[in-house]
Amino acid sequence: xxQGRYEEALKRLEGSKEYPARLGTGKPHDPDFRVQDYLMAFxxxxxxxSAQAGEAQKRIEEYSARNPRPGxxxxxxxxxxxxxxxxxxxxxxxxxGTGNPCAGSRRRHE
Length: 110
Description:
globular, 0% strand, 4 helices, mainly alpha
C-alpha cells in the first residue's frame, strides 16, 4: 500500500482471510476480519472505489453488531494511526528530493 501497489495489497488482504487446511482446526464460525476490512476500505478509497470501500465498512459494522465487544473503536483507531503515520512519513520523506525517499532522515554517527 505504501508503494501505491493497491491491487497487490488487496490480493494479499483477501489472502489473509483464508484458513489453510494445514492449521487443522478449520475456519472459525464467524472470524474477525475487521482489521483486513479497515485496510481494504483505505485501499479502495485510495483507488477511488468508494462503493467497494463502503462494502468493506459495511462488513465491519455488521461484524461489530453481531459481536458487540469493547475494543472495536480501539482496533479502528490503531489501524487509522498506522495508516496515517506510515503514509505521512512516506510523504514527508519523499518531499526531501533525494533518490532514496528517507535518505536524509538518518544521521551518521561520526
